[in-house]
Fold this sequence. Notes:
Elements: H1 3-29, E1 47-55, E2 60-62, H2 79-87, E3 91-92, E4 95-102, E5 107-120, E6 128-133, E7 143-148, E8 155-159, E9 165-166, E10 169-173, E11 178-186, E12 193-204, E13 207-213, E14 220-223, E15 232-236
Parallel strand pairs: 6-15, 7-11
Antiparallel strand pairs: 1-4, 2-3, 2-6, 4-11, 5-10, 5-12, 7-8, 8-9, 12-13, 12-14
Amino acid sequence: MSDDSGNGVRAAVVSGVFVLIAALIAAVVNWPEDWWPNTPPKPPNPKVHVTDVWPDTSSWVVSRKKDDLTPPSKNPCDEGNHDWVRSIGGVETKISIHFVLTTESPESVVITGLRPHAKRVATPKMQTGIRLYCPSGDGFLGRIADLTVDSNPPKFTLYDEDYKPLRRIGLNLDKGDAADFLLNATVNSAGAVYEFTADLELLVGGDRMTLPINDRGKPFRVAGALPAGAPVVSLKMPEYQP
Length: 242
């Protein structure tokens, strides 16, 4: 075989290889998307949504002296009084955090605890309590929990629907289910103001996980009630007996 013939064969082989590679690339590019079985993505873990924060509008603390305080209305249910307390730096001595636990797939969930992340806030000394006794509604129909923000170790108590304390709560949630909770937060230290967020501790399908609870990315704020005998500005409806 002459050199020219050999070169021709080699050129044909190389050309054929390039044609084959090009055909493979084209086949891969145009491959049907549904040809290879896709592994379905793992559904999202349970989520916590804080739907509302209810202040205990009957009890506040402020740094001003009692003689300097004049509520704008004698009606304790007047929203103007609440706006006035906030405008002078009043802090609630109890807040109720309504949150909902949801899942987008069937899950076995056990709530095992709640760990707060709290810090004391530097404020002027709280000198006066403000109490606006206003009749409230019929209460919360759901699971309730209490948190003492400044206790060490953290004091967190879960209750069932009959308000009996529990060590943990087990839930079998289906897709779209929602479990409602009301977390009541207080502070033991008189007049101390705290900001806090919290992590809800769970077992999900046997695995440990935590979910953050916060006020739309910000910390909650609550203060300790003043000791007995501290000055108090008190307003209540004539027929209301707290």
